[in-house]
Amino acid sequence: MIEPHHPRLSVARQCELVSISRSGFYHKPAGETPLNLTLMRLIDEQFLETPWDNVFIERLWRSLKYECVYLHAFETGSELRAGLTWWINYYNARRPHSMLAGRTPDDAYWAPAVEKLAA
């Protein structure tokens, strides 16, 4: 497409004619590292096994936005962090969940572990 040694057209003019930036001509993508490729494959495998997990995450984020973030005008990062910490603790320890038969996540997930330890 671009001929770097064209006798009459500079690389800049050729790039202009085909509507790409000159830096786009010179940029060579590095590609993904083997570690990134492995992580992406593992994420894909997990999603194929449990595609419904995203529904729960979406519900969590929606609840967080509407019950915490949108209701408070956090002015600093430390205020936001304190507000989010309070809300997540409330969400896990005191807020009943219909998907857990009215129990809190702490009750649903930690109580069985405590019962096993007590046995």
Descriptive tags:
mainly alpha, elongated, 119 residues
Give your account of this protein's structure.
The protein has six helices and no strands. It has 119 residues and is mostly helical. The protein has a domain at 72-119. The mean pLDDT is 90.
Query: What global shape is seen?
Result: elongated
The portion of residues forming beta strands comes to: under 5%
Major beta sheet, specifics?
A: none
Average of pLDDT: 90
How many helices? The count is 6
Helix content: 55-70%
Gyration radius, in Å: 26 Å
> What pattern of helices and strands is seen along the backbone?
HHHHHH
Q: Give the CA-CA distance, first to last residue.
A: 73 Å
Uncertain runs with pLDDT below 50, 5 residues or more? Answer: none
Structural class: mainly alpha
Number of strands: 0
Provide a concise account of the structure shown.
By secondary structure, this protein is an all-alpha fold.
Q: What order do the helices and strands come in, and which of them pair?
A:
Elements: H1 11-17, H2 22-26, H3 34-49, H4 53-69, H5 77-93, H6 105-118
Helix pairs in contact: 4-5
